[in-house]
Amino acid sequence: MENNGLALRIARILYDKKAADITVLRVSHLTVITDYMVIATGRSSLQVKALADDVDDALAMEGVALRAKEGQQEGQWIVLDYGTVLVHIFHPEARKFYHLERLWADGENKVPLPFMEEEEKTEQPQA
Fold it and tell me: Do 58 and 73 meet the contact criterion of CB atoms below 8 Å apart?
């Protein structure tokens, strides 16, 4: 799976599982650590853990290997490392505190999420 495709696939899994504030950033020009970051929020520690498990389970079924997982015990900030894509799933307070977008967004590297744009169009009232 292509890096951009993997990042979008992860974002879609999170979206389908009701994660909030999903953001995908292309960061390959800013760091050698990864190419993309997917950032999302769960409403509680339990949902944060469930979202991480859902992403891991879905990608494992598709043959995408998880390299590392951190933060599962606490459920405040879980990081899933897929090599070219890092997934950050936050509890709301932790997301506000760390505000990764402030650190990694450069104004031009946010990846559009087509499935969210489609929903926004269908939610707008017709004139």
Answer: no
Q: What is the number of other CB atoms lying within 10 angstroms of the CB of residue 96?
A: 10
Q: What is the pTM of this model?
A: 0.88
Query: Which domains, from first to last, does the chain contain?
Result: 3-114 (3.30.460.10)
Q: How far apart are CA 62 and CA 28, in angstroms?
A: 24
pLDDT in tens, the chain (127 residues): 567 899 999 999 999 999 999 999 999 999 999 999 999 999 999 999 999 999 999 999 999 999 999 998 889 999 999 999 999 999 999 999 999 988 898 888 999 998 876 565 555 555 5
Ranges of beta strands (E only) in 32-84 are: 36-41, 68-70, 77-81
Q: At which residue do the structure tokens 């999302």 appear? A: 40
